[in-house]
UniProtKB/TrEMBL annotation, chain A:
Keyword GTP-binding appears in the UniProt entry: no
Entry GO terms, CC: cytoplasm; nucleus; proteasome core complex, beta-subunit complex
InterPro entries the record matches: Ntn_hydrolases_N (IPR029055), Proteasome_alpha (IPR050115), Proteasome_beta4 (IPR016295), Proteasome_bsu_CS (IPR016050), Proteasome_sua/b (IPR001353), Proteasome_suB-type (IPR023333)
UniProt protein name: Proteasome subunit beta
BP-aspect Gene Ontology terms: proteolysis involved in protein catabolic process
Higher taxonomy: Eukaryota, Viridiplantae, Streptophyta, Embryophyta, Tracheophyta
Residues annotated as signal peptide: none
Function: Non-catalytic component of the proteasome.
Protein family (similarity comment): Belongs to the peptidase T1B family.
Swiss-Prot/TrEMBL keywords: Cytoplasm, Nucleus, Proteasome
PANTHER family in UniProt: PROTEASOME SUBUNIT ALPHA/BETA
Subcellular location: Cytoplasm; Nucleus
Organism superkingdom: Eukaryota
Automatic annotation (TrEMBL), chain B:
Principal cellular location given in the protein's record: nucleus
InterPro entries the UniProt entry points to: Ntn_hydrolases_N, Pept_T1A_subB, Proteasome_sua/b, Proteasome_suB-type
PROSITE patterns: PROTEASOME_BETA_2
Active site: T16
Phylogenetic placement of the source organism: Eukaryota, Viridiplantae, Streptophyta, Embryophyta, Tracheophyta
GO molecular function, one term: threonine-type endopeptidase activity
CDD domains listed in its UniProt record: proteasome_beta_type_6
Protein's UniProt name: proteasome endopeptidase complex
Catalytic activity: Cleavage of peptide bonds with very broad specificity
Pfam families to which the protein is assigned, alphabetical: Proteasome
Length: 240, 233
């Protein structure tokens, strides 16, 4: 059995089967707002049920016009970032005044994910791609099997089940930055309570026509002082 | 959409952290409060400390939804036969019998702790299979794997009540920091000659560990307070 090293261009020798994820990140949430896109993700990477790494940046800028957020296997995300870096480099080398916008990057990612899926060797990630170019806001998602779409608000993993219902209710066109941040924090707090792979340290990134900014890491306050939490089994000994 | 989300139909399992510690005069029992079904946290404030008798409490790791309904039989049997509340040893052994005789059906690890006037504070561990072991302290649950080294270093004989409780809260909080299956609040029960005290330590009152940050109300507060250090690009 030949060992694959850095001189191999992808896997061409053996038939690879679907792998298992080892170090994984949980949900990413993205929303469109008045001036562009806001994206939030916590900084945790779990190793099975252990919360192993707590300072992993899962939202990164891509070129001048896009932001990418990833959940799933972190090594695959790092590989994707390397490919995107190469893509942007080649784009710059043309030196023609054009630059790849979020729509183009999203398409590139979709092709990459779908092609790997067809070879039964997926990149085990769900990606959120957002950006602004020439005043046009764009927000899309690609899953590990190549399912891709665009929307006003997207989420990966548990965010789909817990955050999107909140966003469906409370998102509207022309959210201000403050309202957008508050909305994302509301969703992240619910995920913190209810997703066991969530970690209380997050970053919120924003992209507008002017450029990308990623916030410093910070933690959210949580609330535990409901009366019902104090003595939940008072009338029902043995229950939980 | 995401195959990695997991099966929300999996049985209620209690990945958990449970700890029982003896001190000079009684015992302190502690647990986290998270119940998860797969990756979803079904209950973030559950109470894993169950009362067996007035002076004996049990901590359970419930792997399957077969809950030990031992509380009734254990409370009534010794009272009827002896006319006084059970000792910790008797209660622990009754619980163990249930665990041992139903080995194939029940899959649970337990820590039984209490105080009686004959032996004082005692902790009994009843792991899978139904073994019974008297221990000065016991830890269990998925979160306990992160605490073996901690207890090897920190455990001391003859602690005071406050030292023991602080140790338990610190330990559960360390486990919560690293075990995805443990979380929420830390509940403790102190049992001694004066009776039983229940305490509640919410998530935000626990110490911060490595790579954890002070909680904030919102990013907006950070941005407005430190306007010299805005978002980094």
């Amino acid at each position: 059995m030949k060992l694959l090293d850095s001189t191999d261009s992808g896997n061409n020798s053996s038939i690879e089967r679907t792998q298992y994820p080892y170090v994984t990140g949980t949900s990413v949430i993205g929303i469109k707002y008045k001036d562009g896109i806001l994206m939030a993700a916590d900084m945790g990477a779990s190793y099975g049920s252990t919360l192993r790494y707590k300072s992993v940046e899962r939202v990164k800028p891509v070129g001048k016009h896009s932001l990418i957020g990833a959940s799933g296997e972190i090594s695959d995300f790092q590989e994707i970032l390397r490919s995107l870096d190469e893509l942007i480099l080649y784009d710059n080398m043309w030196d023609d005044g054009n630059s790849l916008g979020p729509k183009e990057v999203h398409n590139y990612l979709t092709r990459m994910m779908y092609n790997r899926r067809n070879k039964f060797d997926p990149l085990w990630n769900s990606l959120v791609l957002g950006g602004v170019k020439n005043g046009q806001k764009y927000l899309g998602m690609v899953s590990m099997i190549g399912v891709h779409f665009e929307d006003n608000h997207v989420a990966t993993g548990f965010g789909n089940h817990l955050a999107r219902p909140i966003l469906r209710d409370e998102w509207h066109e022309n959210l201000t930055f403050e309202d957008g941040v508050k909305l994302l924090e509301k969703c992240m707090r619910v995920l913190l309570y209810r997703d066991r792979s969530a970690v209380n340290k997050l970053q919120i990134a924003k992209i507008t026509e002017e450029g990308v900014t990623v916030s410093q890491p910070y933690s959210l306050k949580t609330f535990w002082n409901f009366n019902a939490f104090q003595n939940p089994t008072a009338g029902a000994e043995g229950s939980w | 959409m995401d195959p990695s989300v997991g099966d929300l139909n999996s049985p209620h399992s209690m990945g958990t952290t449970i700890i029982g510690v003896t001190y000079n005069g009684g015992v302190v029992l502690g647990a986290d409060s998270r119940t998860s079904t797969g990756v979803y946290v079904a209950n973030r404030a559950s109470d894993k400390i169950t009362q067996l008798t007035d002076n004996v409490y049990v901590l359970q790791i419930r792997k399957l939804s077969l809950i030990m309904c031992a509380t009734f039989s254990i409370n009534t049997r010794p009272r009827i036969q002896l006319g006084q509340p059970a000792t910790v040893k008797v209660a622990a052994n009754l619980v163990r019998l249930l665990s041992y005789n139903n080995k194939s059906m029940l899959q649970t690890g337990l820590i039984i702790g209490g105080w009686d006037k004959y032996e004082g504070g005692k902790i009994y561990g009843v792991p899978l299979g139904g073994t019974i072991l008297e221990q000065p302290f016991a830890i269990g649950g998925s979160g306990s794997t992160y605490l073996y080294g901690f207890f090897d270093q920190e455990w001391k004989e003859g602690m005071t009540k406050d030292e023991a409780e602080k140790l338990v809260v610190k330990a559960v909080s360390l486990a919560i920091a690293r075990d995805g299956a443990s979380g929420g609040v830390v509940r403790t029960v102190i049992i001694n000659s004066d009776g039983v005290t229940r305490n509640f330590y919410p998530g935000d009152s626990l110490l911060l560990w490595h790579e954890e940050l002070e909680p904030q109300n919102s990013l907006l507060d950070i941005l407005s307070s430190s306007s010299s250090e805005p978002m980094v690009s």
